[in-house]
Amino acid sequence: MAIDKEVSGESPITFRLDASSGVPTYLQLVRQVEDALRLGYLVAGDQLPRVKDVVAALAINPNTVLKAYRELEHKGLAAGRPGQGTFVEATVDVVVPLRDRRALSRGLLRWLNSAATAGLDEEAISALFSSALREFVQSGGGEVAS
Amino acid sequence: MNVIETHALGKRYRRSWALRDCTIAIPAGRVVALVGPNGAGKTTLLHLAVDLTRQTSGDVTVLGGLTPGSPDALSRVGFVAQDTPLYSYLSVADTLRLVGNLSANFDEAEARTRLAELGIPLRRRVGTLSGGQQAQVALAVALARHPELLILDEPVARLDPVARHDFMAGLMAAVAERGISVVLSSHVVAELQRVCDYLIVLAAGTVQVAGGVDELLAGHRVLTGPTDQAGEIATALPVVHESRGTKQSRLLVRCTDLAPAGWQVQETNLEELVLCYLRSPQATALPGPRRTDSDVMSA
Amino acid sequence: MTAATMRAHPAWRLPRLRGLAWVTWRQHRIALAGVVALLGGFSLLMLFNGLAMHRDYVRFGVSSCGRLTAPACQVPVTVFTEHYQGWAQFLPRFLEFLPGALGVFVGAPLVARELESGTFRFAWTQGRHRVSWIVVKLVLLGAVLTGLALAFSVMFGWWFTPFQPLMGRMDGGQAYEVTGIVFAARTLFGFMLGGLLGALIRRTVPAMAATAATWLAVVWPTVVFVRPLIEKPISTPENASFITKGGWVVSSWTQDAAGHHLDEGLLLTRARAAGVGTSDQFRAWMSRHHYASWVSYQPESRFWHFQTVEAGVYVAVALMLAALTVSWVRQRTT
Predict the structure, then answer these.
(1) A35 vs chain B: nearest CA distance in angstroms?
(2) I need a surface site. Which of B24, B225, B253, C245 has the fewest CB within 10 A?
């Protein structure tokens, strides 16, 4: 039987799910929207895929999609219009001045050097970084618990 | 409203108890996963909720106090049994007519549309359809009755991955459209996390875990650290399951923020949570003061 | 009904079945078709054979020769019975088992098939309570089967009419079992028996076997042992006028003037010792000693009384079995 798995053509983007990534589903959807905004697939005024269509394509709980869209609303990236759907409000502006970016980059290289000196290889560094980043995100971006 | 509420529900077959002292309260609007090993009592619990069997002790109500088998319950609760039993000698169209004649508010047009979208021919006898197609027919029929609560007993156990996906996609789409409550049982946990937002773990006839998936996952952590400290941790925190190596141990604990020094804290996932509880029959995670009766809290 | 609706629903259409009635029809239409085919087939057989028989009854002169015991009727009766006696004796003995067959093939699978295949988990959760389900099925199918059986009995009664004055209908194991109302009552009994056994045994083929066995185990003894009890048979000396009254001989014996029953073997020995050789001599010797052959029988006139009592018992038992089946479906199931 042929089922059209693609989201119906109302929205410019379509979602995918990485079941084994360990990242919560709703967060994956949020990030995919943010990526789409960054890359220009979505602009202000575009409609996000309808909950029903996402659910029919990915076989996930509708509440997950609602949670993702609420998160996007909370971030100011989208807004729901009653009876019509959820629409993009603003673009993601990760406007980091070039000077700050360079400084951050240098700081990062320094840290990488000390990690390498301590004996960590690439995978160990990656693991350490991922876990620290997770803690950081979960604690709301505040102080990392030591 | 609780879509299924039980108090000390028990069912005995001859000498053994299939279900014992089961007390749960499933809130409305959720997709509930009822998981447990084979023989844990899942089918028994679901059959009690749809009046296919009678309890030995305790009571069960559905949709906020209705007795299973009462006219209201019969018309507002949908049920798809294990192995989706349909009459194999009937055509799909006749199956629709049959349910239309048994059910008060059957939307035959909706069922036909859904089956047409799936490419299931109406004239074929049900017995000649594949397992996946039969499951889709059973689902289409159940959804076209517009139930408030839909109960499915291991609906995808014998389906291939594509059929499984299509089945769950169809079910989730219906949930998205109409907000029905769904209770589905499964002995395979892996694919449930993205679909379910409420979990009940049943093992050896008793309820081990009951709660929202988000709350449960938020309330558990995996601690990884040195084995010689594992004993200390176990006295301080409720440990669900331990996995000990000679130097390193992993503990699944019920806690939210305690991060003992030198221990790595990670979140867990649904599959790991369920497996750990199933391996530790003494541990429980049951909801607290919201319930009307007092509960057994975990060891 | 307005003119418009009358045009939309022409009078010749069958009434549309709804709800559980439609479900019953759809699930059992093949079984019912089989019943109609079976009874219809035999009916056609009886029709063709009966038309010929009725015609020959007149043609051979049996209908116009007066009293059947009179010498004038000897030849016509003999010719007629030579042609058709075989039918009259063989056919009922075959047909009397049909009620059991109907019970086995329609009644036993009713609940058993659902339980065996698991479809009850579908049928009983689509909005109608299982008690309604079983009650409608038992009532509708029971009524249809009983109605068909009654019609069949009428057909047989017509077919048997020429033989009624010759053989009577009271003989156990023959026409009595097919004409009248006992045939239909036994059909209802067989159907309800099958329904209950199907529910208890839960497997179709074993339930069918059990239904067949139980039906026979109940029906056969009632013919042999219970029926005579309905009304005490009449005892009378055996004579020619009795034979053509068409009664059912329950037992026969020889007794002396005082009424003592005599051993037939002893009588024969004594008669031979007295030099009796032919049957005429034997009869003369018997009357000299005032020995007489007696029979006890149930006269033809008691036909409807017996039928009503026996059918009443079968129907009462059938209703009890139906109540048990409904109760079982309500309580037990799994």
Answers:
(1) 22
(2) C245
